[in-house]
Amino acid sequence: MAQKDYRSSLKPIWCPGCGDYGVLSALYRAFDELSLEPEKIAVVSGIGCSGRLPGYVNAYGFHTVHGRAIPIATGVKIANPELTVIAVGGDGDGYSIGAGHLPHVARRNVDITYIVMNNGTYALTKGQHSPTSMPDFRAKPTQLMPLEESLNPIAQAIAYDISFVARGYSFAKEIRLADLFIQAIQHKGFALIDVFSPCPTFNAFQAKEYKECVSPIPKEHDVTDKLQAFGLAHNAEHIPIGVFYKIQKTTLQDKIEELKITEEKTSLDELFEKF
Ligand code: SF4
């Protein structure tokens, strides 16, 4: 396989300079370096500019409804544990409309990788504030700054005890986005990667901040230390990128397999009937 084998026949229609291009090419690279067969991959998205991504990948794809990539990706993984399941979406999709799914997918520890293309705005609907808009970002439609505080998705993910938490940047040179994706896919359990994916069309302000403020997480950081990870997530001086937190815990699939054995059931359908 080569990177080109993961490209579909559709040509991306994102704006020039959009960070989502960086995410897509890093994903092709990660699939190639992991030698994954396209028929063993499923990419599930919510709604937004980033929601188009499954259409650009030569693999199984599902462009679902707003905020629902996680429950659908969960269903795909339970139905076919052999698949590498990637859920993708934007910050509005994942941290607002679909935010209620995050603590529960963390509790279940479903073995899927969730990539959030975070640009601090609802870009598809022309640039309204999103949960991760910076306090001094003036939204294009209203020219107003947000009335709400911005969400810290990394601190939230660590608080939920998501078993792999990382942050990347579409244009980072120091830490390859593809390497973060590879680590997340290889991790057994739920992995969240928040990717600063600039929207130069509707949030050029935040795009500039990302470029100037990101820097790699220090090598001595202990990824299993939850308090240290919290400290990094609240770093006020710069925006760390890399792996914040990584622990091993039982996955939902492990528990399903255990149930099948203890209940002497052979099929998932029979198990579901019992519930
Ligand atoms: Fe990318 Fe923003 Fe254009 Fe959407 S509007 S494609 S997020 S640059």
Structural commentary:
With 275 residues, this protein is of the alpha/beta class. The protein is 33% helix and 18% strand. The protein contains ten helices and ten strands. It has helices at residues 20-33, 69-79, 91-97, 102-108, 153-159, 177-186, 204-213, 226-233, 252-262, 268-274; strands at residues 41-45, 60-63, 84-90, 113-118, 121-122, 128-129, 164-169, 191-196, 214-216, 239-246. The strands form two sheets. The chain has an eight-stranded mixed beta sheet, with helices on both faces. Strands 5-6 form a two-stranded antiparallel ribbon. Strand 7 (164-169), helix 6 and strand 8 form a beta-alpha-beta unit. Helix 1 packs across helix 6 (177-186) and helix 5 (153-159) runs antiparallel to helix 8. The longest helix has 14 residues, at 20-33. The model has no long low-confidence stretch (mean pLDDT 93). Residues 14-15, 18, 20, 49, 119, 123, 199-202 line the site of iron/sulfur cluster.
Outline the low-pLDDT stretches. Answer: none
Which structural class best describes the helix and strand composition?
alpha/beta
Largest pleated sheet:
8 strands, mixed
Question: What sort of overall outline do the alpha carbons produce when their principal axes are compared?
Answer: globular
What is the first-to-last residue Cα distance?
Answer: 42 Å
* Helix content range: 25-40%
Mean pLDDT: 93
For the largest sheet, list the strands in their spatial order: 2-1-3-4-8-7-10-9
Q: How many helices in DSSP terms?
A: 10
Note the beta-strand portion. Answer: 15-25%
Secondary-structure element sequence?
A: HEEHEHHEEEHEHEHEHEHH
Radius of gyration: 18 Å
Ligand inventory: iron/sulfur cluster
